[in-house]
């Protein structure tokens, strides 16, 4: 698959088949993603690839704590509620996803069910927990940039092999649970996770194509003419 095609066609996948993902394929994807640039080539990333029983325990712990009202416990600062244009875009994608799934605005039960699916990492057969070296926390936010780059690499490399992904902040909302069942070493910080598997083509939300701002709105060209 050409790079342009992968970048254009990729979208977040939130419904997966039960088919397992071979370890060799995951290793290939990770190897490719790690060609990502990083500050001074520090490569501060650590990837914990979960499947089977440990992933089930993470899903269970994450979901039951959220249901019990345990406040989210992430290891990076919480973005809180979005306002203004960011909130508008958040609402737009939510409307698109709920629309595709036929979930009405007043259908509290199905909306809650959707949120719980997120905490279960959309029942994906694989979850890659993306961490960075804790020693870098005193050096600002540059490691977050590096991890963003490697994560996009993972997502694109997976897509070009027919695998679907969704970067899934909800999946690490209860990070102590992830830390325990994935046995994350104390010298690493959990940033996010990526749910991955074979897309279920009958799952309507998988067809949703999110919008993007125009180049005119985003980019300024200085000194061109
Ligand atoms: C840091 C980050 C965290 C995300 N967390 C979630 C999440 O918890 N649940 C979810 O459904 N999607 C999550 N997403 C996916 C975004 O909603 C999605 O990328 C965005 O709506 C654009 O859609 P697209 O990926 O289909 O282009 C996350 C994306 C990023 C980059």
From TrEMBL:
<dbReference type="Pfam" id="PF00881">
    <property type="entry name" value="Nitroreductase"/>
</dbReference>
<protein>
    <submittedName>
        <fullName>Nitroreductase</fullName>
    </submittedName>
</protein>
<comment type="similarity">
    <text>Belongs to the nitroreductase family.</text>
</comment>
<dbReference type="GO" id="GO:0016491">
    <property type="term" value="F:oxidoreductase activity"/>
</dbReference>
<feature type="domain" description="Nitroreductase">
    <location>
        <begin position="9"/>
        <end position="198"/>
    </location>
</feature>
<dbReference type="InterPro" id="IPR000415">
    <property type="entry name" value="Nitroreductase-like"/>
</dbReference>
<keyword id="KW-0560">Oxidoreductase</keyword>
<dbReference type="InterPro" id="IPR029479">
    <property type="entry name" value="Nitroreductase"/>
</dbReference>
């Amino acid at each position: 698959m050409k790079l342009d095609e992968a970048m254009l066609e990729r979208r977040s996948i939130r419904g997966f088949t039960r088919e397992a993902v071979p370890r060799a394929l995951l290793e290939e994807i990770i190897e490719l993603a790690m060609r990502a640039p990083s500050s001074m080539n520090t490569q501060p990333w650590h990837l914990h690839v979960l499947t089977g029983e440990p992933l089930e325990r993470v899903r269970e712990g994450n979901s039951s704590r959220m249901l019990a009202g345990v406040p989210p416990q992430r290891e990076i600062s919480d973005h809180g509620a979005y306002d203004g244009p960011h909130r508008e875009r958040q609402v737009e994608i939510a409307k698109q996803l709920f629309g595709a799934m036929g979930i009405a605005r007043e259908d509290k039960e199905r909306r809650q069910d959707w949120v719980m699916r997120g905490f279960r990492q959309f029942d994906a057969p694989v979850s890659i927990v993306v961490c960075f070296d804790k020693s870098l926390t005193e050096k600002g936010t540059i490691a977050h940039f590096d991890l963003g780059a490697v994560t996009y690499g993972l997502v694109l490399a997976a897509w070009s092999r027919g695998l679907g992904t969704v970067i899934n902040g909800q999946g690490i909302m209860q990070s102590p649970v992830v830390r325990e069942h994935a046995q994350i070493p104390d010298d690493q910080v959990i940033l996010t996770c990526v749910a991955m598997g074979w897309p279920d083509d009958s799952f309507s939300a998988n067809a949703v194509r999110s919008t993007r701002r125009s180049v005119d709105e985003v980019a300024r060209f200085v000194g061109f003419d």
